[in-house]
Amino acid sequence: MTYQSPIAPGVSFYEATLDDRPAYPGLAASTSADVVIIGGGFTGLQAAHHLAAAGKDVVLIEGARFGDGASGRNGGQLGTGQRAWPEELEPEFGREASQKLFAIAERAKAHLKSFADSHGFDADFRPGQISVAHKRGYVDEYRDHVRIMTEEYGYPHITFLDREAAAEKLGSARYHGGIYDAGAGHINPLKYVVGLARAAAKAGARLHETTRARAIVSAGGKVTVKTDTGEIVAGRALIACNAYIEGLEPVTSAHVMPIRSFIGATVPLGDSSPVIPGGESVDDSRFVVRYFRKSADGRLLFGGREAYTSDNPADISSHIRRQIAEIYPELNNVEITHAWGGSVGITLTRRPFVRQVMPNVTSIGGFSGHGVMLSNYCGKLYADFVNGGSDDLEAMRNLKVGPFPGGDKFRKPLLFLALTWYSLRDRF
Ligand SMILES: Cc1cc2nc3c(=O)[nH]c(=O)nc-3n(C[C@H](O)[C@H](O)[C@H](O)COP(=O)(O)OP(=O)(O)OC[C@H]3O[C@@H](n4cnc5c(N)ncnc54)[C@H](O)[C@@H]3O)c2cc1C
User: Fold this and answer.
1) Of 19, 116, 137, 214, which residue is least crowded by CB atoms under 10 Å?
2) What would the pLDDT profile of 33-63 be if each residue is shown by its tens digit?
3) In the chain, what are the domains?
4) Could you tell me if 415 and 404 are in contact, meaning their C-beta atoms sit under 8 angstroms apart?
């Protein structure tokens, strides 16, 4: 029977079509290490690999299976830059800091590709990313963005698409224009997780699935992580739990909150399909972003539906099919073979949360839907920091991220109200 993640709804297309997903044993007994990592997504596994490769004794525990969080179930899209465009960061951070943050994101993109290449695994990387405007009024911003990126940020891979050019690239006349970015692209995220975990194990990291951290105590220069099967005592800890943190550590819980996002995979559309003939990935300008691309076997993988409570929609497929048909009316009856969801970790400013939350305990997460390349890179940066220091991690730490308002009691209802309000604006 196909594996079903215990922490997220639906069997993903990635899981259902993966040839080999090695299982890693649970923690059997108490142990000690130089570094303990909680969370086996991109962030935790990258940190484990790079620490172990530098000779550190590392133990990583994952409550479910590697990739069961966001990392193995996402849209697989790489976006250039931080989540906000550089010109949006400039008023607050200034030109120099914004350029530095852009350069960090470019290093993150390069790292994602070169890591897979150098470790010899294939995650179905395909180049090309298209961002499109669902309202006519946004088109000028896209045009300006292309000019700023090429002239002021020295990024040569981006071009403006007018309405006709966007329609040609998408195989749909639904959008008003957009941008084409030859420097970005997309991957099969679960294949990446599997390759990354193998590389981390090979480097010597001790990896454990199905082992949930129940508590973290930092005292006397040591960190103790308690689980049902034993304690791990280490000099340092990394919390890489992202949206799945729940009550494990209160500072992270106050800054990183979950929203659910859902994806559907259609049957293969066939070689003659006009949908995204160039095979790029696409995202649009809605607050509740629609993100879609074709898989290596020609299916449309379409994400768009969100939920702001822990309830899951009764019928993910029908909802996704309706959204697909708004863009591709000819697909209004298309068969959806797989429908699944996952929790995206968001922060108030939609910037990653990187912080020391207790002595010797760092927490990293909250990539706000832009984590495929940034979470991988931040995991590596954490290892660089432990191995002697990292300017790039320091720059990410300096991104201002405040707690969600409302305290423990009202944080969730307030977020629900705010996001519902913003999502309604997409319709007008
Ligand atoms: C549906 C969806 C679509 C997305 N699409 C995109 C996209 O197209 N492009 C993009 O850039 N980003 C996208 N994202 C976001 C991206 O996937 C994340 O930013 C990234 O994967 C975060 O990686 P992570 O390792 O920090 O967290 P995660 O992958 O979420 O890993 C956290 C892990 O911690 C574990 N954990 C939590 N608590 C405990 C505990 N107490 N003990 C042990 N383990 C614990 C969880 O089980 C989980 O496996 C999407 C996310 C979702 C959900």
Assistant:
1) 19
2) 999 999 999 999 999 999 999 999 999 999 9
3) 13-73+190-254+348-418 (3.50.50.60), 125-186+258-346 (3.30.9.10)
4) yes
